[in-house]
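Bug report

Summary: structure tokens for Beta-phosphoglucomutase family hydrolase differ between web form and batch submission.
Environment: batch mode, default settings.
Steps: 1) Submit the sequence below via batch. 2) Compare with the web form result.

Sequence submitted:
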Amino acid sequence: MPQSSPCDHHQSEQPRFDEYDALIFDMDGTLVDSMPLHLDAWEITSAEFGLPFDRAQLNEYGGIPTRKIVTMLAERHGMTIDVEAFARRKVALYLARIDDVRVFPAMWELVRQYHDKVPMGIGTGSTREHAAHILRQTGLDAFISVLVSADDVVNHKPHPDTFLKVAEQLGANPANCLVFEDTRIGIQAGKAAGMTTLLATEGTLQRV
């Protein structure tokens, strides 16, 4: 295992990650600033469907597909909701602003620094279509070729399947992979995969 111990840092003091077999990133809220757009869409749709909305709670569900979250919340509140209609409306609101998504500057720096030095992949709870659009729109697709989306696994985060599949496609040993995540559920998934995990908050990294 790598001996370096990543900790809180700013752009001027980047830790070194070149001893890892692979760097694996969550996308929404970790690499790109898309979570506010998701949450705005959730807030509007929840109001329209009468579903109680808690922005902080929804943020923590990052990495879980929309339909699963709606089903879970409806059961919790004892409500009957047309999950497909809810998901269609939420997705439509999000897609109307998807081209506003940008890469966090510190994460851009990291991706460019390790491009062609350490294999990199993305493990996201977004659909492949939406994730691929963001990668093309931001230019990340030129740096990160492996993408595992919600469409590619049955068991989503906090299960380890997403990150394990990224490692498999990169030909990397999971025990020597580093996961970047912005939510508790994502960190749980990384740990369940036997990987080292870093909490990424708008580009600031913390070992967890």
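Above is the batch result. After comparison, the two runs are identical; trailing whitespace caused the diff. The radius of gyration is 17 Å. Residues 1-13 have pLDDT under 50 and may be disordered.
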